[in-house]
Amino acid sequence: MENDVIDLSRVESVPPEGDDGRHLSIFRVFLVIAVVVAAIAGTWWYFARQSEDAATAAGLTSWFAPYVDVTATPQYAFEDATAAGHTSAVLAFVVSALDAPCEPSWGGAYSMSAAADSLELDRRVARLRQLGGDVTVSFGGAANS
Questions:
Q1: β-sheet bridge partners, residue 136
Q2: DSSP string covering 17-42
Q3: Strand, helix or coil at 80?
Q4: Suppose 115 and one of 45, 70, 110, 136 were both cysteines; which one would form an S-S bond, judging by CB atoms 3.0 to 4.6 Å apart?
Q5: Which residues make beta-bridge pairs with 104?
Q6: Which of 81, 82, 53, 71 is nearest to 115 (CA)?
């Protein structure tokens, strides 16, 4: 028996009892995770792109304009902002007048007509429009109604 050699090619591997021989490999786990992440990212990208295309088709595009408190001193020359590359301005704040809650005012300090006279707001808006810009008005404010 000392010289007997066992031929290992004839020995069959028998899995332990209750084990069918199939195991989950690390490669398969990472592959499944990668496929799931790619599917989620692809779905998100598709829907994000669809909403961008719909907004563009509807004429909704994002834009930027400097925010200007017209009652701040010294006054910001928003009508000259076109020299800096801005074509529009957001004018703030139209709020209710302090003594007449149903009347609009600029920051509670100027009535609409007083702003036209004291701040020359009408002339300044007209100048911005002559330069190809436009204004948007912000209503409300942190300290006013």
A1: 90
A2: TT--S----HHHHHHHHHHHHHHHHH
A3: helix
A4: 110
A5: 96
A6: 71
Q: 128, 89 in Cβ contact below 8 A?
A: yes
Q: Pseudo-torsion of CA 140, 104, 62, 66, nearest 10°?
A: -80
DSSP code for 78: G
CB contact at 8 A, 106 and 112: yes
Confidence (pLDDT) at 54: 73
Cβ neighbours of residue 74 closer than 8 Å, sequence gap 6 or more: none
Q: What is the pLDDT of residue 98?
A: 82
- DSSP reduced 3-state for 82: helix
pLDDT at 1 over 60: no
CA distance 65 to 87: 7
Are 126 and 78 spatial neighbours (Cβ–Cβ below 8 Å)? no
Largest CA distance in the chain: 120
Q: What is the pLDDT of residues 26-71, one digit of tens each?
A: 898 999 999 999 999 999 988 888 877 777 776 666 677 788 888 8
